[in-house]
Amino acid sequence: MNQLENGTHLPLMEEFYSLQGEGFHTGKAAYFLRIGGCDVGCNFCDVKESWDKNRHPLTEVDEIVEHILASQADSVVVTGGEPCQYNLDYLCQRLKKHNLLLHIETSGSATLSGVWDWICFSPKNKTFIFPEFYTLANELKMIIETPNDFIWAEHNALKGLYYLQPEWSKFDKITPQIVDYILKNPKWRISLQSHKYMGVR
Fold first, then answer.
1. DSSP structural state of residue 16
2. Domain that holds residue 154
3. 190: which strand partners?
4. What is the CATH number of the domain that holds 167?
5. Which of 61, 65, 164, 174 could form a disulfide with 170 if both were Cys (CB 3.0 to 4.6 A apart)?
6. In the chain, how long is the greatest CA-to-CA distance?
7. Number of folded domains in the chain?
8. ω into residue 36 within 30 of 0, thus cis?
């Protein structure tokens, strides 16, 4: 079993301590791990440099954990790329020993590993989605780029917390449509990328 398969190393694109800018936990401090490698490749992705895992060095999970513990963080958000492509059991085991809250953001295109306190599920159209996420997810975040995305959002609606998030480059055009849609369909909430307004990562 190699280092990726056993989860002791991950292709880390970046790590930083900041505020969660989106969804249910907006405004909360968290340590972010962005894992390189993505099998989805959304045209509107604002971190396309994360897609190729070979561009990002294999980093020891134990080293990552040391960095997290040196911060003031009480929660960790694992994102990508698509982090579920990797074995995250070891990462979760190491962090749970220190009673940290663990969040993951995923499209659901790969099976889940690790133990999580919060799963933000953001399924993408024309991508295979593992059905387990429809029952495991705590939060559904749908990116709205065009009016057709409202149909996709309803197709994926869960019983719980659902968010419609305007695609950043279409913000001015699509946000009024999202507001109107939520007024007519109040089970939805809006999620804004507040970190971009604040100028933080």
1. E
2. 3-198
3. 164
4. 3.20.20.70
5. 174
6. 52
7. 1
8. no
pLDDT (tens digit, 9 = 90+) per residue, 47-70?
A: 788 888 889 999 999 999 999 999
Share the mean pLDDT of the chain: 91
Cα 159 from Cα 134, distance rounded (Å): 9
pLDDT digits (tens, 9 = 90+) for 96-126: 999 999 999 999 999 999 999 999 999 998 8
Q: How far apart are CA 162 and CA 166, in angstroms?
A: 13
Tokens of residue 53, six digits: 């895992």
Confidence of residue 198 (pLDDT cuts 50, 70, 90): low
**Cα 131 versus chain centre, distance:** 17
Q: Which phi-psi region, left, alpha or beta, contains residue 81 (left: φ > 0; alpha: ψ -120 to 50)?
A: left
The token pair at 87 is 């074995």
3-state secondary structure of 199: coil
What residues have CB less than 8 Å from 3, skipping those under 6 apart?
A: 9, 58
CA-atom Rg of the chain in angstroms: 17
Q: In this structure, are residues 198 and 19 in contact, taking their beta carbons and an 8 Å threshold?
A: yes
> pLDDT tens digit string along 157-185?
877 778 999 988 888 899 999 999 999 99
Percent of the chain with pLDDT over 90: 73
